[in-house]
């Protein structure tokens, strides 16, 4: 299981789209008032996040 590849879906506000990136792109995870939010680099080097806070907030 050492080579297990974990992927994470992030939203990049610069590309204005979602990206599926590898776990190595993960920068950090923060606990916010809306729950845990993961920050990761999109394939173009921007900082994206998951899940999209606005969508999560609207879904509650
Ligand atoms: Zn981007």
List its traits.
12% helix; 1 helix; three-stranded antiparallel sheet; single chain; binds zinc ion; mainly beta; 60 residues; 5 strands
Strand order of the biggest β-sheet = 3-4-5
Q: Element order, helices and strands?
A: EEEEEH
Associated small molecules: zinc ion
Contiguous low-pLDDT stretches (5 residues minimum) are: none
Describe this structure in words.
The chain has 60 residues and is mainly β. It has one domain (7-59). The protein is 12% helix and 50% strand. The protein has one helix at residues 53-59; strands at 7-12, 17-22, 26-32, 35-41, 47-50. Strands 3-4-5 form a 3-stranded antiparallel sheet, with no helix packed on it. Strands 1-2 form a two-stranded antiparallel sheet. It is globular. It starts with 6 loop residues before the first strand and ends with a helix. Zinc ion is lined by residues 12, 14-15, 42, 44, 46.
Question: Which helices and strands, and how do they pair?
Answer:
Blueprint: E1 7-12, E2 17-22, E3 26-32, E4 35-41, E5 47-50, H1 53-59
Antiparallel strand pairs: 1-2, 3-4, 4-5
The structure holds zinc ion.
Zinc ion (ZN) binds next to loops.
Task: Kindly summarize this structure in a few lines.
With 60 residues, the protein is mostly beta strands. 12% of the residues lie in helices and 50% in strands. It has one domain (7-59).
